[in-house]
Specification:
The chain is built from ten helices and nine strands. The chain is α/β, with parallel strands linked by helices and 224 residues long.
């Protein structure tokens, strides 16, 4: 669950909520255990799914399990040496795009609470055009603050069009858009909101694609 400011995940709120859901999770673990034993499976492959791991912790199924902890690949001692890019990683529409350098900054925030950061930065730099995408409920398709700042509801086609023509891109570091920005040669500012985005930001930073920040400090992006 997000923090009240709707920026990052709240550990306390998440733990409290999940404690109230324990009966539901326990029912799911019973189901997983039963299906493993009844299926005749010789091996269980688990992509780091928590309930499957907890099923093995508490119910001890007789079938061996392999857990693929792909989120933690960057902790592996051979991370730099053995990673290979195997296409396709990008949707076909991206591959047909041609990047051009516009005068505006493009952005996406998975948590709309970061909008306050954008508004604050914009008030000090009103001369720089900004187009940010969010999924804030009860907002218009385009929330036009003034001549140089607009918030857009998510739209794949529109988002990619703005990505192709921007000067640089600021994001909460979701995997797909980080890859798209790198492919189109757009400098990145990454503000990860949870562990998976931390991994994406870490990898992109190591590749020289951008910088990591705690907030949407667009000045850092422009400097980069």
């Amino acid at each position: 669950l997000p923090t009240p400011a709707n920026k990052r995940a709240s550990l306390a709120r998440s733990v409290a909520y999940n404690l109230t859901r324990l009966p539901v999770y326990l029912k799911s673990m019973h189901y997983i255990h039963r299906r493993i034993e009844e299926s005749g499976a010789e091996l269980v492959i688990n992509f780091y799914e928590l309930l499957t791991g907890m099923t093995y912790l508490f119910f001890r199924p007789s079938v061996p399990q392999i857990s693929v902890g792909h989120q933690y690949l960057f902790l592996h001692r051979d991370f730099e040496a053995y990673v290979r890019v195997v296409p396709p990683l990008l949707r076909r529409e991206v591959l047909s795009c041609e990047g051009t350098e516009g005068d505006y900054l493009h952005g996406y925030m998975v948590n709309s609470g970061f909008g306050e950061n954008i508004l604050h930065w914009h008030s000090a730099h009103p001369e720089i055009p900004l187009h940010f995408f969010w999924d804030k409920q009860d907002e218009a398709e385009v929330c036009r603050v003034d001549d140089t700042l607009s918030f857009h509801q998510l739209d794949d086609v529109k988002f990619l069009r703005y990505m192709a023509g921007c000067k640089a891109y600021a994001t909460t570091a979701g995997f797909e858009s980080v890859c798209e920005a790198m492919y189109l040669g757009k400098p990145l500012l990454m503000v990860p909101a949870h562990i998976e985005q931390d991994c994406n930001a870490y990898d992109a930073f190591r590749s020289g694609a951008g910088v990591i920040s705690e907030e949407f400090d667009l000045e850092r992006l422009l400097d980069f």
